[in-house]
Amino acid sequence: MGEVVLRLEGITKNFGALKANENVSLNLAKGEVIALLGENGAGKTTLMNILFGQYTADSGRVEVFGKTLQPGMPRAALDAGVGMVHQHFTLAHNLSVIENVILGTGSLWSWKLRNKQARQQLLELANRYHLKINPDAKVSTLSVGERQRVEIIKALFRQAKILILDEPTAVLTPQETEALFKTLKEATEQGLSVIFISHKLREVMIIAQKVAILRHGKIVATKETKETSANELAALMVGNPTSPPAVVKRKSGPVVMEFLNVSTETQHHSKGLKNVSMRLCSGEIVGLAGVSGNGQTSIANLFAGLITPSEGELYLDGKPIERWSPRQSVLRGIARIPEDRHHAGTVADFSLTENSIIERYRDQPFAHHGWVNWQAAASFTKELIKQYDVRCPGPNTRIRLLSGGNMQKLILGRVLQNNPRVILAHQPSRGLDIGAVHYVHKQLLEARQKGAAIILISEDLDEILQLSDIIYVSSEGRLSPAFQRGKVTPSQLGGWMSGASFAEQETMHAS
Amino acid sequence: MRLEAIPHPSLSRRFLPPILALASTVFIASLLAMVAGGNPFAVLGLIIKGAVGSKFALLETLNRATPLIFTGLSVAVAFRAKLWNIGAEAQLYSGAVVAVIMGTGALAWSPSVLIPAMIICSMSAGALLLLIPTLLKTRLGVDEVVTTLLLNFIFLLLVSLLLEGPLKDPMGMGWPKSARLIAEARLPRIVDGLRLHWGFGIALIAAVIIWIVNTKTTFGYAMRAVGFNAEAARYAGMPINLIMMQTALLSGGLAALAGFSEVAGLKGTLTLDLSPGFGYSGIIVAMLALLHPLGVVGAALFVAGIFVGADSMSRAAGVPTYLADIMLATALLLMVVAVLLTKFRFKRE
Amino acid sequence: MEILEIFLTASFWTAAIRIASPLILATMGELICERAGVLNLGIEGIMVAGAFVGWFGAYIGMGLWGGVLLACFVGMLLGLLHASMTVSLGLSQHVVGLGITLLATSLTYYAYRVALPEVTSPPKIEAFQPISIAILAYIPILGPALAEQTPLTYLAISTVLITSFVLYRTPLGLALRAVGENPFSVAAQGLSVLGLRVGAVVVGSGLMALGGAFLTLSAFDSFFFGMVNGRGWVCIALVVFGAWKPHKAFLGAILFAAFDAFQIRLQQSSIGAEIPYQIFLMMPYFLSITALVVISRKAEVPAALMAPFYKGER
């Protein structure tokens, strides 16, 4: 291996009693890909925030090309040649690609935007690394994959010699992931060094030469990928692992909910649906895979009652649904686990008690002639806390003080408590640590056992493959055929996710 | 530096910043009093004496607090649901106009019928007035801050028009002023011989009712949910537009009561200077009370005391009475910072 | 016929542009703030302060331009106060803005009373006089009206050109547009979100104060209470009307002012004499609300408007 380009030395950072990073050291060599592996909350994000001057470490230092970075200076890392592609892209949607790329690259106080020469440079980079992009497109019109390309170009445009990618494959199809890996391979051959942050073991084994495993803020091991296995890495990452719940075979029951030729309007954040049909049977988990922004939100919103079809029909128990709203959805016994538990799922400034009755605050036993029965609400909440193992100081605690996992447990409890017939689980395990993920999966499988019809929407293909009895893929608001468990491979699903298989299907129909 | 939430704030953490905010307000006011050539201690002393120093002063403060409790409650209710009603001034005048229309002899009812009818009609007028910008907000997405503000100007001109036209007092000798309310339409005094009318009593009752609504009813629960997080409320199936409109009706009605009580309780007539900005001061009252309905009563008394005290101080010490407005605006700004500091601390990052 | 003739006189358009000038200045100020993601409801109070301070500067012998500079400086100070609370501490932009308006207004009135305790009628100064720039008269339609204005009007118009140029043609403007859309895009490129937003609010508030100063230094020649009279709120409506674009907001201000000039003339006409004057005075406010209703459905609001930014948090 070549010279060391980035050296983290003894980084420690505490937030109150929480040790976010403890004596973390890491060396990255030229042309090398190191994977930083760890669960949610293991300290990966804090470490990157320190590297990029958003936080100042309590002790330790960062060295780039032999020079120590001044702590707490966001520009220092950028100027030293470190670029980062964040998991949530940092693009201004109303600006064009080129505007996003040149933003902040020169002096703010110049009279001229260096548009022309920048365009030349951008196109050269795009060529060299096979990152196809239209410099004048508005970011709001780009797909997720294209946006990631813009982020990578942004870093390369700044002449980054070190590229940090935070969960870059979370939003990509398997094929797009492959293309990204190809780009990274070419780039490292030309001398770029990469830190690849992920929790996907399979990908880590493919792309990285070295893996550093972070657990509870500490590096617990550094391994060469040649000399380790995915299983060993998993054990190291989790510590004392809980095993994933077993999926018991079960015969599915009658159809509970059905969409027939449903279309919806495209709204600002959710792609509209085009002539979609799907059915949910009792005792069955239906998985919906796809790259985010391809209609999953519309499907979720349909279940949640937030939108109504512009064409087509929804059926519940074989009867068409006429009035449809969030309230109707609750009343008809649909348990809704929203994608965004912080914004749609809970009211941060409400107590646990206030949050647990939010869907049923005007129904028995929580309300009586317009008065809230706080006693009933409190005892319901205590029951949830006990039964779903919500770790909290008490039912009067404001929910913003809870961890994501405990928040999700309360939401699960709130909706599962009255044996729902249909369950909408939209990204139910996103951002949770593995223990909590297994807990969520266990609850969904138990509900399936009890005969609930479950729709599981997830961007994590592994989760879909593991839990679903039936799998659909959505792309551009269309739906693939239904696949039975075990009858489809990830790469086949990938074909549908990218939209390629839809095109094939159409040509077949045409001929 | 960054702000970090404190999970369990200590007692001093919770009370010290607000106390310091009030102390700084007094300090700044003292400096300004000195600039105007006053002795700061004398000026502050005169303000306190003018506010609570005598039976007369105290009653004056209670009278002044009455409309402020109503507008303060109006703002507190609306802001809690994140309905930015800056139009309490217009809603106040709408209540006053209705009181004048009904109470100047057109209806020959006994007080036990007339006064409740006036209350209901005044509240309806204020409620409808706030309903317009609220509908524009929920239906068309028009920001209600600007519309309610602009409606204040429009409505005051309308009052001026009415006072020079249909509502003009024939005996008013050209001065824009309405006829006087008949005796049956006047709010009686709480205690004979004391210059304090039942408007104050109604204000206190209103505060308690709002507190009960907020904490015990499903409507209050829904209002708070919509204010804290409208997205979650919608997701959970709350009819947020309906809740917004109900909030608007309540808020507008409360502000209108201020106008009703000023006309029927205190002044007996409507003029263009009925309110020296009670609608705007209501924002200060509500914020100082941290939007708590019972806190509104205390905050209104404090704000009224400053106003009344500053008036009498101004006459005695020659320091402009605008000192009161400065003190209140300063208190408002410092208080929002203080509240932040009760929940967060600065942390080196 | 009488009504149509009003629009055809040069003096009508001269008046319209004069009425528009303070609105243009303050609207550009608000637009800059909002483009950076900060709603500045301090605008009304800052205009009041600017009106008084500008006049006071001239009154005590600093000269007219001295007054202008002083007003701008005081506006920037108030902007700094606003920004340090809303941007640095992330406090509610609604509450802080209204608080600043109340504070600036009461401080101004207090200062006026302290500085001039004895006066009964407001003292006058020698205000800016129109300068004639003959060459402008060749511009079609508005030319003759443009050629006879005071220097502050020319300043107002150049502000539009400068704002437009900076926003769309310079790296600084690019950063401003980005910070109002997604502050993380700016932070990730190593720029300071705080710096940009504080800067925008300070500069914007300076312009608002200039708008206020126009009233006392150019439109009138003295300061009196209530002279701003809701113009600040109208400017906020104009920013929405202009869809956060300088040239559109400018056109909005001219349209608005033309309407205002028209209603003044209509009042004096034979038709106008029949209608109570309050109706005419209401018109500008009605017009603002109507503009908001018509426009706000379609406008592209800066996505991060009113969203505070905390480092490292997402």
Pick out its properties.
heterotrimer; B: 349 residues; mainly alpha; ABC transporter involved in vitamin B12 uptake, BtuC; two-stranded antiparallel sheet; C: 314 residues; two-stranded antiparallel ribbon; 2 strands; 1% strand; transmembrane (chain C); transmembrane helix (chain C)
Structure description:
The complex is a heterotrimer of chains A (511), B (349) and C (314). With 511 residues, chain A is of the alpha/beta class. Chain A folds into two domains: 235 residues, Rossmann fold; 172 residues, Rossmann fold (3-Layer(aba) Sandwich). In chain A, 34% of the residues lie in helices and 24% in strands. Chain A is built from 18 helices and 23 strands. In chain A, strands 13, 16, 19, 20, 21, 22 and 23 form a seven-stranded mixed β-sheet that branches. In chain A, strands 6-7-8-3-9-10 form a six-stranded mixed β-sheet. With 349 residues, chain B is mostly helical. Chain B has 13 helices and two strands; from the N terminus they run βαααααααααααααβ. In chain B, strands 1-2 form a two-stranded antiparallel ribbon. Chain B is globular, with a radius of gyration of 21 Å. The model of chain B has no long low-confidence stretch (mean pLDDT 92). By secondary structure, chain C is mostly helical. Classes of the chains: A alpha/beta (511), B mainly alpha (349), C mainly alpha (314).
Task: Write the SSE topology.
The complex is a heterotrimer of chains A (511), B (349) and C (314).
Chain A: E1 4-15, E2 18-29, E3 33-38, H1 44-51, E4 59-64, E5 67-68, H2 74-80, E6 82-85, H3 97-102, H4 115-128, H5 144-157, E7 162-166, H6 174-189, E8 193-198, H7 201-207, E9 210-215, E10 218-224, H8 230-238, E11 255-263, E12 276-281, E13 284-289, H9 296-304, E14 311-316, E15 319-320, H10 326-331, E16 334-337, H11 341-345, H12 352-356, E17 367-368, E18 371-372, H13 374-387, H14 404-416, E19 422-426, H15 434-449, E20 453-457, H16 461-467, E21 470-475, E22 478-479, E23 483-484, H17 490-498, H18 500-510
Helix pairs in contact in A: 14-15
Chain B: E1 2-5, H1 11-35, H2 40-52, H3 55-80, H4 88-103, H5 111-140, H6 144-164, H7 198-216, H8 218-228, H9 230-235, H10 240-267, H11 278-288, H12 293-317, H13 322-343, E2 344-347
Helix pairs in contact in B: 1-2, 1-13, 2-3, 2-12, 3-7, 3-10, 3-11, 3-12, 4-5, 4-6, 4-10, 4-11, 5-10, 7-8, 7-10, 7-12, 8-10, 11-12, 11-13, 12-13
Chain C: H1 2-8, H2 10-35, H3 43-59, H4 64-88, H5 93-115, E1 131-132, H6 143-146, E2 148-149, H7 151-169, H8 171-181, H9 183-188, H10 193-219, H11 231-241, H12 246-268, H13 277-295
Antiparallel strand pairs in C: 1-2
Helix pairs in contact in C: 2-7, 2-10, 2-11, 2-12, 3-4, 3-5, 3-10, 3-11, 4-5, 4-10, 7-8, 8-10, 11-12, 11-13, 12-13
